[in-house]
Design goal:
heterodimer, A: about 290 residues, mainly alpha, B: about 240 residues, alpha/beta, Rossmann fold, six-stranded mixed beta sheet, four-stranded antiparallel beta sheet, 9 helices, 10 strands, globular
Amino acid sequence: MTELILQAIYSGLLQGGSYALIALGLAVVFGTMKVINLAHGELVLLAAYVAYAVESAFEVSPIVAIPVALLVVCVSAVLVYFLVDRIQKDRELNSLILTYGIGVMLTNAVLLIWKADIRSTKSAWLQDAVVIGPFYSMRSELGFFVLSLVLMGLLWWWLSKSWYGRAVRAVASNRDAAKLMGINPRTTEIVSFVVAGILAAFAGVALYSYGVIQPPLGHALTVKAFIITVLAGVGSIPGVLAGALLLGVVEALTVTLLSSALQEIAGMGLFLLVLFLMPNGLFGTVARRG
Amino acid sequence: MLQLDNVTVRFGGVIAVNGLSLSIATDEVTGLVGPNGAGKTTLFNAISGLARPSAGRIVFNSVDVLKAPVYRRARLGLGRTFQVPQPLSRLTVHENLLVAQRFATGSIDESRLREILAFVGLTEKAGRDATTELALSELKALEVGKALATNPKLLLLDEVLAGLETVGKRRFMQMLKDMHAKFGVGILIIEHDIETISNLCKRVAVLNFGELIADGTPEDVFRNPAVIKSYTGADHA
């Protein structure tokens, strides 16, 4: 039993890497625009299906599809931005309706093109087992977990050290003050959507490489990303990573100890528990006013 | 030179600034006073681009900036501070200035940033978090430092002395005087304290109900019956 639990924790941690990438994309966009992009999970779904399409059409590894997924998802993310940017009134609220609608359209587009069947990679190499001590995982699971850590490191560097990263943080901190410092908020908003698209593309290809995909997955991923950002308390990369790993572990333990039917409810239970006990999130701070 | 021609700002049915025309030189310190609700901050918002006038023209150094977005006005040399300091969170004091300089001027001049930090008295706090590790007087100094880092030609200071104790206020006032001389920046300052305005400014404009009711030297303006009436509600000639 102990071995099963330890294996579930290990698998949950690996799953958490992809969750963190998805949640960070949602958090970056929310930071600059104060918009919760409810179509974000569908962008991840799109990347997963691009990986499937490239693998099926050219009989290559889904890894080869990463550049195509990056292109398709980043262009889609920028299109979502331009639609959101057209909202003139109550953008924070109306964007929820708009992005939810975009999400539904993307899911249905995926359904129309690739049908409702469950898909998974045919690459045996990606699915080969990697054994580390008593723990088992697929090669793709471990590989994409490491890649997600690298991407998070790069994101941290970009936000901390690059000019546009600093501009994104400035706009997220105080939009008016940032504008008075000569920062064009529209440019930083587009950049934040592109960054979210890049993270979504990698996460989508990762999910396809070690899991199964089907059209309703996008919506579930948006909900998970939202849960993680609330768990983390928006604004910290280590916080989002910790929140994502926690969600991954809770889901994996639920599947192992209870039932796979309870996987989604476990995440929601964790979400409500944190909201009730720690309203600012596990790592959030109370903002100073005045 | 900042030229306001017949500027009107409305919020629904309320006219906050009503057909105001005014010229502000970029080589002097000008005071903007008036009772609460006179439209001073709204006028600052209109000049800096945070509020959109429904009528009129705003020309800064021969460029019509009425339709220019806020960030472009900042790049043209229109600096602005807020009454409540607005530091960028999760950035250090130095990074606040760095970002302002980089985006407003397009380049980095570390020696000038060090000069600004020393001038506003924040050299020792350069590496501190701007939102959690500064006292109010330091936050006010950072607000001025950020604006200076954008290399402004005209700086709009919105009640920058508010909330400071007497000694801090005198020190800050001296800093503003020195700033005008040292950095060659014009200043338009909103301030309620008459002593401060008289000390800092050679010219004062007075607003009431969104209209310009007086414009001249502090001595003349503060003896003006219309100005006295706007503050007290009664004639005290």
